[in-house]
Amino acid sequence: MTYEAFLARLEGVRSRGPGKASALCPAHQDRSPSLSVAEGRKGILLRCFAECDKPAIVAAMSLTMADLFFDAPTPCGQRPVPKPVKINLVALAFRVELGALDRRLRAERIIQAVNSISIKELPDNDLDQLVDAVACAHEDVQRAEFLECVADDLRLKEFERAERTVGHAVSR
Fold this sequence. Notes:
Layout (H helix, E strand, L loop, with lengths): L2 H6 L2 E5 L4 E5 L10 E5 L4 E5 L5 H7 L28 H27 L8 H48 L1
Antiparallel strand pairs: 1-2, 2-3, 3-4
Helix pairs in contact: 3-4
């Protein structure tokens, strides 16, 4: 069973940080969250501060102790809920911008090298290759500009996401 699927079966769940939560203990009449739930390396870790034992807690949830392990078969034929992947748009924008910088620098080196070549002495075959290289370099400059715009858009989306989160938190 996954950590998220386990938390979904509890009431009064409050996040206490990544992989940590508190909830109402299902094994006793609980008015304030006394059950500590944490995501361990191999399974779900439980502790009731009202001294309920783990078998009683999982039995009250219609589970077994084996369900606390991540590699356990899913209870009652339920499929585990996949953890949504949150993409770090700022890190992605940085990687896109690095690609743009790489293209731009390679293109500028090619264009600078071509400026120092005397085309009068080149045979036609070499001149054709040179023209193709310069055309590719100019295309790389255009691609770099495009990638820089994509990176800016990604940063803007992350900024807007952060603004919505802050605005949502303030309106509560």
